[in-house]
């Protein structure tokens, strides 16, 4: 090759390099190029916008040193070199916005990784669009529900959250027995959603097309009035009775379902009459001499230990076995942590829509919610979310906004007073350690805790937790 040809080839190579530099420099995404050893060779100006650090600072730095200094949280470069393939991960930048890092290997003629080109994309705009789309979809869902209500068709799901396996099994069973006219006994602590499950069974049963769901709280009605409320009365049955008489709840639920909440509060005398309804399929109004046939399915619910009440003579054994045909026990919220984050989002969306707010909950507060015992279960969670949303001045609700009763050492299971941030870390470590005993990889662990896989990797390293 002549000198002129060499000079021309050299000029062409310089033109190509200039064009390549211009392309890299003018890319909206951050470009980060390292050699196979992790030494930074080249970056562009976009990386300054995304990370807040001048691009020249990176040149010549090793990615491991950048991680140690807190500039990077994870190294996509090391994974690309190790796995010899394109690797993507998500991490947060200096402003807390999510960034997507995609590392691509450049191979030499021997098939070895020579360089790694990492593309860094700011996901904040995408997340904003996703949030707007989610709100639009929520409004669309609300409109559909309202149309269904206007058509007198009950909602099929009614906002039920069943992310955890126990709740999936319960609602799967409820769906399968919806059209079976057997008595159902729903057990569970106060506030776990027993009435929601009863509504779900009714909604998905054929009885919803023929009759109504009538709800009676056996503990909220005085015992001397409960009999007339349940069974009704004839004209002149007692002083003050309506001259036309009155049908009871059983008659109102004819062809439908009668939901007897707090069945453990039912007086013994009425337990006998309820047993007769279950055995004979008929009721008798107060003051009447004639029984009346009814077609009613019974769903009962209680937060009490009926077996213990039977043993103590406070509940009839024969009635217990009549009610306990299909028992469904709803676990407490603290035993189904997978449902906590979805429930938080659902209640927050409802409150924001109700009061025209735009409140958000920060990560530390979500972690606190995950570790809290929730003695009041879902009802307590819903009430707390609404309370925080309407009383917090800022758009973002933090752990400092919690009421005083939630900020005790007992709540986070420590036996001494510690700084608030440390208390949150104690709870977070405990939850992650529990989940790490069940799951064998970080992807399943992240899904169970409703967070990202890079976050789980970082937390496992921070707390020195090993997967099983």
From TrEMBL:
Keyword Ion transport set for record: no
Residue span, PAC domain: 83-135
Coiled coil residues, start to end: 126-153
The Sigma-54 factor interaction domain, residue ranges: 160-390
Domain (PAS): residue spans on this chain: 16-67
Biological process, per Gene Ontology: regulation of DNA-templated transcription
Pfam families assigned to the protein according to its UniProt record, in alphabetical order: AAA_lid_14 (PF25601), HTH_50 (PF18024), PAS (PF00989), Sigma54_activat (PF00158)
UniProt entry tagged with the keyword ATP-binding: yes
Gene Ontology molecular functions: ATP binding; DNA binding
Keywords: Aromatic hydrocarbons catabolism, ATP-binding, Coiled coil, DNA-binding, Nucleotide-binding, Transcription, Transcription regulation
PANTHER family, A to Z: C4-DICARBOXYLATE TRANSPORT TRANSCRIPTIONAL REGULATORY PROTEIN DCTD, TRANSCRIPTIONAL REGULATORY PROTEIN
Name by which UniProt lists this protein: HTH-type transcriptional regulatory protein TyrR
Provenance organism: Salinibacillus kushneri
